[in-house]
Automatic annotation (TrEMBL):
Identification of the protein by name: AB hydrolase-1 domain-containing protein
Source domain of life: Bacteria
PANTHER family attached to this UniProt entry: HYDROLASE ALPHA/BETA FOLD FAMILY (PTHR43194), PEROXISOMAL MEMBRANE PROTEIN LPX1 (PTHR43194:SF2)
Length: 132
């Protein structure tokens, strides 16, 4: 969900974001609204915020898709490959619609940074250090 927040910031305040890294974030498209089941036990996240962001994900604001073109930051979209529950064609399309976007796939599922921390870090550092 952090990727969605980062997208909204980068399109709303493009002058504040020079580089943007998105981990396995698909293009915002309406989908059947669902409510995730709250995990048992003590949570490390604000559950109400999870539900609020999920509603935005399921029914994105009409102009959200068009505003992707406002992002001026050089953007790396890291895709998780076939093991991810996120539709990978949507991840690739997101990278294509952001003016300075590019995609790299690390076949690790959705939580790429957790499953393949060294490969994820290498991809991100290469991107952040590049002059392009």
């Amino acid at each position: 969900m952090g990727g969605i927040v980062a997208l909204l910031l980068a399109e709303g305040y493009p002058q504040r974001v020079d580089r943007l890294v998105l981990e396995d974030v698909p293009i915002p498209r309406p989908r059947e609204q669902t409510t995730p089941t709250r995990p048992d036990g003590k949570l490390t996240v604000d559950w109400e915020m999870v539900l609020a962001v999920r509603r935005q994900v399921d029914t994105p604001e009409a102009g959200w898709l068009e505003r992707l073109s406002r992002i001026t930051a050089k953007t790396l979209v890291v895709a998780g490959g076939p093991g991810s529950h996120v539709p990978q064609e949507g991840v690739v399309e997101l990278a294509r619609r952001v003016p300075h976007g590019r995609v790299v796939t690390i076949p690790a599922g959705h939580l790429i940074h957790q499953a393949e921390p060294m490969e994820f870090t290498k991809a991100v550092l290469t991107f952040l250090r590049s002059e392009e």
